[in-house]
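User: Show me a protein chain along with its predicted structure.
Assistant: Here is one chain, sequence first, then structure tokens.
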Amino acid sequence: MSDRVLSVPLPSRAALPGQPGVVLAALAGFFALGAAISLVLAPAGGAPRMVALLALGGGLGVALYHASFGFTAAYRVFLSERRSAGLRAQLVMLALAVVLFFPVLGSGALFGQPVSGNAAPLGPSVALGAFLFGVGMQLGGGCASGTLFAAGGGSTRMVVTLAFFVAGSVVGVAHLPWWQTLPALPAVSLVKSLGWPVALALNLAAFAALYGGVRALERRRHGAVQPISGAFGARRLLAGPWPVVAGAVALALGNFATLWLAGRPWGITSAFGLWGGKIALAAGGDLSGWGGWSAPAMQGALARPLLADITSVMDFGIMLGALLAAGLAGRFAPVRRVPWRHLAGSAVGGLLLGYGARLAYGCNIGAFFSGIASGSLHGWLWIAAALAGCAVGIRLRPAFGMAPPPPAGSC
């Protein structure tokens, strides 16, 4: 499911009412989580903001599902077939994001709320982590956002990927301190070093050049370019599908809303390590002496309620939003039987995704999308290394029973 990029079939008229049971289950999930957040956070305050972040995550899940906004397949079809619609939609998303983010990050506040960007050092951990993440995307069948919305939308295989994503994240947290000892350049924010107007102009010029370049490559290979826009009315708003550019706009606006509500950009994968750590503790494990888990920040996160973690609450919202969207579209249909080689790919890919995300200070959302939206150079390093990893992962897919890339020169 996370491999869809351009469109999904339009539901038949008989399916327009969707699946009421699935819709009600998703809404009940939102209500139950909202009530639990209110109870957990009532003594300390902050419940209304966290409930708003849950709802925001739900909206992002709906957008991801209805627009089939995947990063994994976008990279695969471009590298193997030179189809660029997914990449062009991502460039639109990034362009809108920097237009929204850079002036706000330059001032340091949004509607009176202090905000900060997502910047990380430029070192081997980012390069290797993003490369491993790229391989994992192609084997596991999804990225961070894709894994969540596909699992929430009913993909059995992606539930397996998510489980191993969590396991890989636990190991990644433990090993990260060693990787951080390696030589690295400090974090570079173009907004801070150049000022937001110059940084904005440079980024928009880069996006325009990349947009034109990938579009030209697609036209050269296929003689025509697939569109990223299309019909989009009230009927499709609820039942889908959305044109992929609508998903791009929704994700950019959602990330900006996250910046306002959370004080920092959207992220996904830091929650996975936390989930795994809490599972390990519940099973009687002791993480206090295991690498990065002994850090006071991690020990503090483990001690706090899970519903006090912003990233976790938004991730739960994404899955519930995808479930809601699948129900509205009448497309929630989990598959019980999945080929064992696909499950093996999910396991290996999930481990690489989790480990790589921790080394790279984030995933396709936290490091790439939010990193570039913050003006951080590590976002550009991330995508370069991830694309290299994707190229390797594409070649490894046949070993796990997945479609090989087409022969050179084919359509």
